[in-house]
């Protein structure tokens, strides 16, 4: 079969383009219409039909699938980041259609949760996990009628009666390399009928970075040794220790070593094995971070961003001194981000799923994580509690603020773990706000420390009047929005919720903004795809902002970052990919890195 070959440079990556003169009968591949998988291209061919790409992928070393678009087959080493793309067709090699390994009964993989889906049947979780670019494994439990807990890595399996777990090789391990062996360096072996089942075994072993499946056995290896040909063997390198790859990204300097690898995914194991390595760059075209290492010195670029105009802001607002008769008095304020230098709370409205929250504040030359939340099984929070406006005291003149129940819909006298999911509108007849307002269920977050007369401004309940975050701060939220309703997240002066968010408070409604409201990502109209940001403050009218600074993250979570920095006067909202939350999942961030975000 004759062929000619040329190469095309794509921002540092040399992708071979093959022009084939004849077409052999296609091997069996399954296809998905209107589907794309971004990145991980290793070659391309020119074909008039998507079915003709199958042979090309089979013949290409490291190819596990392809995307055909306008006459070009883009051959891929991994299939992650599934998206809707009219005119595109995705194809999968026959042995890749089984995207997940065998299900392990009565097994849990604790931690590393990145989302969840509702499925009554555990077998449906595999597709949900495969459709999520960050998902490497799932655990199904009977909670809420059946829930798939999607996870960024397998972790250490533990016994859990009734739970069912499995991993997907597409996110957890690199491409399956047929007829390939990596000789030596064995650390363990397991008996598995299918090569795809070896991935979970390798990930669960603390020393394993590559496996070879041969003769019904998974040979787990502590190093990526010399590659050789072995008929019938299948090998793969574990990539779960690294974040998802960033295309067209380089980190200049600070090299601690080099290795020769044919694919970007193969670099992860080399970096993980080197104690000094925290980031790897392959070919100048892909970069990835090793999880659990030091904070990155550089963040990826945001997908969307809006920065408010800087200035020196002065004025006053009506501070509530008593809910009885809504008594107020003028409160003067001034500053580079006033009134947002005062204590703030963050409010969330459904339909919305909150996967993770981190709050950072500057201390001793760095930005330290002071509060955090993870929606996992079970949920966990540190120096952060969830409240809403369901306190029955609101019906007798008291503050509606109280701790939220696990589902966010009811009142709890004590702080309890929050499930992370907020429903759409449920009880429009309750006009006191929170879970009963017509626009969807709501919760807000505060620190667990109670207010005192000399530590908090305004009126507050002695039990549920809690502190917000004052001074400079950065809120980082990983969340997925519902397609319907008017989901939103925004910041309020903590005095607003401590008094009565939908009644007597220092904020008021619309313009002017009083003690302050910063809409981070708000769907203004039901069902629209865009999200707005607006800044309401003091006597400003009209309020600055943008009605469509970004779009709803419906298909997968996004990471929203809000920076309020007094020294620089910065107030900015940014949106990153959902997986980029990993960059912020550290105890402290270098000041220089946060300054670069501004």
TrEMBL record:
Task: Please give the InterPro entries that the UniProt record associates with this protein.
Answer: Apple, Pan_app, YJL171C/Tos1_C, YJL171C/Tos1_N
What domain of life does the UniProt record list for this protein's source? Eukaryota
Keywords from the named record = Cell wall biogenesis/degradation, Disulfide bond, Glycosidase, Hydrolase, Repeat, Signal
Give the Cell wall protein YJL171C/Tos1 N-terminal domain ranges.
307-362
Question: Could you state a single Gene Ontology molecular function term?
Answer: glucan endo-1,3-beta-D-glucosidase activity
Q: What reactions does this protein catalyze? A: Hydrolysis of (1->3)-beta-D-glucosidic linkages in (1->3)-beta-D-glucans
Name-wise, this protein is: glucan endo-1,3-beta-D-glucosidase
State the species of origin.
Aphanomyces stellatus
The gene behind this protein is Aste57867_11807
